[in-house]
Design goal:
Oligomer: single chain
Number of helices: 11
Distance between the termini: 43 Å
Helix content: 40-55%
Structural class: alpha/beta
Shape: globular
Low-confidence stretches: 1-5, 217-251
Number of strands: 6
Mean pLDDT: 85
Largest sheet: 6 strands, mixed
Strand order of the largest sheet: 5-4-1-2-3-6
Length: 255
């Protein structure tokens, strides 16, 4: 008798010796990279849960414990440029794939939080499934959610030092009233995701100008003639093409 897909998945899971949990952090913010982590747990760790249900202090403590006790872990990211090029879902799946591939031990089963399992992992021969709400019920996913969240928060602190006018350390890039007010007052910076509607609207109103590191100057909208608009469009297209051709992918790995 031929086995069904569910039976085959059950067999693969039952035989798995290295079960990996994967989660991401940073799909909703208007700025910054999207992070993902993959974890193969060893000894049990008390207090694991969905990172969003834990305080920052608890996440920091658990993050250190996970790194010390897990059999394998890896944190990866997909850049702002990749988010704008691929869309946030595909960039998140890319970061997840990078995290799994970056593990020091190959996983023979992968639990991914949510309802999308990366096709790249399937193509690379990984068995696994997506698990809705997995960060609250599967310890390995909970651990991954904590690592991803702590890493992304640290990156937001870095962005806050570069662009203090936006308050990234406080809102972590999410579209809070404070962030939106700063975005309208100062324009967008290179860390902002240009394809996200609030950022795109601001860029349209400021002729695509970007704020520079450390500045608190306000970018004011200006009226353009048709000739100026055409010239700017041509220049921007050329610059974007050159940048895409020559820039290196800004992917972060920590394992």
């Amino acid at each position: 008798m031929m086995q069904g897909a569910d039976d085959l998945f059950a067999c693969a899971l039952n035989d798995a010796q290295a079960i990996c949990g994967v989660d991401e952090a940073g799909r909703g913010p208007l700025a910054g990279a999207v992070y993902a982590a993959a974890v193969i747990l060893g000894e049990p760790i008390e207090g694991l849960n969905d990172s969003k249900k834990l305080s920052a202090k608890t996440r920091e403590r658990l993050s250190a414990e996970i790194k010390a006790k897990a059999r394998a872990w890896c944190i990866a990211s997909a850049s702002v440029e990749e988010i704008d090029e691929l869309n946030i879902l595909q960039a998140s799946l890319l970061a997840m794939t990078r995290a799994v591939e970056g593990l020091s031990e190959r996983a023979d089963w992968v639990w991914v939080d949510g309802n999308h399992f990366p096709k790249l992992l399937v193509q690379k021969g990984y068995a696994g499934r997506a698990l809705i709400g997995g960060d609250a019920i599967e310890p390995a996913i909970s651990a991954a959610s904590i690592l991803a969240k702590v890493a992304r928060d640290a990156d937001c602190d870095r962005l806050d030092a570069l662009y203090p006018q936006y308050g990234f350390a406080q809102h972590k890039g999410y579209p809070t009233a404070t962030h939106l007010a700063a975005l309208h007052a100062h324009g967008a910076c290179p860390a902002h995701r240009r394809t996200y509607a609030p950022v795109r609207k601001v860029l349209e109103s400021t002729s695509g100008q970007l704020a520079v590191e450390g500045t608190k100057s306000t970018l004011k909208p200006k009226l353009k003639t048709t000739a100026e608009t055409t010239a700017e469009t041509t220049a921007e297209t050329t610059a974007e093409t050159t940048a895409e051709t020559t820039a290196e992918t800004s992917t972060q790995f920590t394992c």
